[in-house]
Amino acid sequence: MTTLISINLVYYLIGIITMLIAYLSWRDSSNPKRITTALFWFLFGMSFLFGDVMLLYLGKTTSYRIVGFTVLLMAAIAGANLLGAGKRPDDEATTRRRAAARLGNKLFIPALAIPVITVLLAGFGKELQIGSMFLLDQKNLTLASLVIAVAGALTLGQRITGSSPLMAVRESRRLVDAIGWALILPQMLAMLGGVFVAAKTGTSIQAIVNLFIDPDNRFALVLIYCLSMAAFTMIMGNAFAAFPVMTAGIALPFLILQHHANPAPLVAIGMFSGYCGTLMTPMAANFNIVPAALLELKDKYQVIKLQIPTALAVLACNVFLMYFLAFS
Amino acid sequence: MNMELLLPLIGIPIVVLGFAFKVNPLMVVTTAGLVTGLAVGMDLPTLLETFGEKFMNSRQLASSLLILPVIGLLELNGLKEHAQAWISRIKVASTGRILMLYFVVREISAALGLLSLGGHAQTVRPLLVPMAQGAAVNVHGELPQALQDRIAAHAAACDNIALFFGEDIFIAFGAVLLMSAFLKENGITNVEPLAIGLWAIPTAFCALMIHLFRLARLDARIAMDVAAFRAVGDGARL
Questions:
Q1: For residue A209, what is the nearest residue in chain B, using CA coordinates?
Q2: Is the distance from CB of A133 to CB of B50 less than 8 angstroms?
Q3: Mean pLDDT to the nearest integer, B136-150
Q4: pLDDT tens readout for residues B156-206
């Protein structure tokens, strides 16, 4: 059975937006690095627009190598500081204030429509069909719902403001200029995580952690499990990658089998210890770095810095919660 | 400890040093990947293949690009300005209170599985940040950039913390399913996802209390910073 909003369609849409952004960057004379900026977004858009076609005609090995090579090029452009940004016209603030006064609360409608439509569709839209086609990709419900929500919000937004779709893309290019390389970072980190897995980094970490283990000291074991979950998550940027390694290495043999810990609270709190690590690492870029870029913060690490006190306090709570709840 | 165990770790100091010295992160991450791969004996074509495969298979991470056109359109038409004006009509609203309310709603809705209600591109940037900043502007007048940035960063941190510690209570969430699948694979078959979700509640509650405590002190902290900033400004003018 086929799907109307498939994951591939989502990729094509992202690809089209990126290519328009590349084109607009190329034409933007206020950006001193317009050529390399355009090239960067063009390379990024390629894997979205042509990725599936390449897989079909060139096979996996060649396609992945080509994409891998474009990734190196993008890193080189960003690393050589060749990503620039255009200038905004000066009279804009007045225009914005005037529009705000004219449109009032109507401006909230499209903004609120995105989360509301996404949640409703993701919750109740799984079975929706058009003819014999599913409306939403069955494996990527949220993403497919987001596409419809965004399309709806965009239509509403144009109705209300009287702006054209091209204006929307032009504005999104300005946002992309502000975000810059951070938009690519999450995928680059997923790539690094893949190399770490292939290099069996987890095994090495486990071997090092094992040096500190005293199998008879229950509290020390709990402490090491929580801390190593947080630390390995900080390295991988993702608690899901750290969980099997650390749980199989410490929790399962020592805490569950030897000390008869209750598995449910043990793993639940162990995973949360990993989340404390997620809050403290730039490797979790889509939570910590991308928002800083999106909010145009001067210090890209400011979100992490603000999260560290809460993360450490929760981590300390986790150690005691695990010690008392898993052994009651 | 032999070399074979240490070599796969070579990427970690590269990442730490690269981030510490503020080298472009794309460069840092790619270099760390290249060095780690070559150190454990992968050849360049295989390494490029791994790069490409992981990059392609994580394309869904770029989905915030879909939201940007709408946000850009609304911001061009004064969404931020209106959000600030709107919040000024609510007399009891303060930066700390707005963030506390958002935190509680976000954590509870995440626990019920409504993960997409928030998010940095769709909620934090267009709505939460202008409101949180606007509430402070209403009390103190124009804010210095550093303080505007801090309030914005607090809003982003709220979204993350509330989401992380809420979502694991929801039993159909990926992490809960991952944990129960892991236990089953390792021969522990009597643990239901529901039990794991329930045992997430104590930590979720701790995170709620700890972060609300910090947010409760935010308004006083902002007032202090504004006063300090004004004092420095006046001193400079004298």
A1: B1
A2: no
A3: 92
A4: 999 999 999 998 888 767 788 888 888 988 888 888 888 888 999 999 999
- Nearest Cα residue in chain A from B178: A240
**In terms of domains, do B51 and B100 share one?**
no
* Same domain, yes or no: B136 and B56: no
Cβ within 8 Å of residue A246, ≥6 positions away: A206, A209, A225, A228, A229, A232, A270, A274
What's the ipTM? 0.90
CB nearest to A275's CB, from B15, B164, B174: B164
Q: How far is B189 from chain A (nearest CA, A)?
A: 10
Q: For residue A65, what pLDDT band results from cuts at 50, 70 and 90?
A: very high
Q: Give the rounded percent of residues in chain B with a pLDDT score beyond 90.
A: 53
CB A275 within 8 A of CB A232: no
Mutate to test the interface with A, among B31, B53, B55, B120 (most CBs of A within 10 A): B55
Of the pLDDT bands very low, low, confident and very high (cuts 50, 70, 90), residue A259 is very high
pLDDT at position A177, please?
86
Tokens linked to B29: 């991450």
CB contact under 8 A, A65 and B210: no
Looking at residues A7-12, what average pLDDT do you find?
Answer: 90
d(CA B69, CA A176): 10
Check residue A212 and give its pLDDT: 86
In this structure, are B25 and B116 located in the same domain?
Answer: no
Which chain B residues are within 8 Å of A20, Cβ to Cβ? Answer: none
Backbone φ, ψ for residue A130 (5° rounding): -115, 110
Q: How far is A145 from chain B (nearest CA, A)?
A: 10
Q: Is A5 helix (H, G, I), strand (E, B) or coil?
A: strand
Q: Are residues B57 and B74 in the same domain?
A: no
- Count how many domains chain B has: 2
**Chain A nearest C-alpha distance from B150 (Å):** 8
DSSP A284: S
When pLDDT is averaged across residues A251-256 and rounded to a whole number, the result is: 91
A75/B27 CB distance under 8 A: yes
A63 phi/psi in degrees, rounded to 5 = -60, -45
Is the domain of B85 the same as that of B47? no
Task: State which residues form the domain around B184.
Answer: 66-237
Chosen domain end from B16, B37, B61: B61
**Tell me, what amino acid is at A123?**
G
Question: How do residues A190-225 score in pLDDT, each as one tens digit?
Answer: 899 889 888 888 888 888 888 888 888 999 999 999
Q: In chain B, what residues touch A146 (CB-CB under 8 Å)?
A: 63, 66-67, 116
Residue finishing a domain among B17, B42, B61: B61
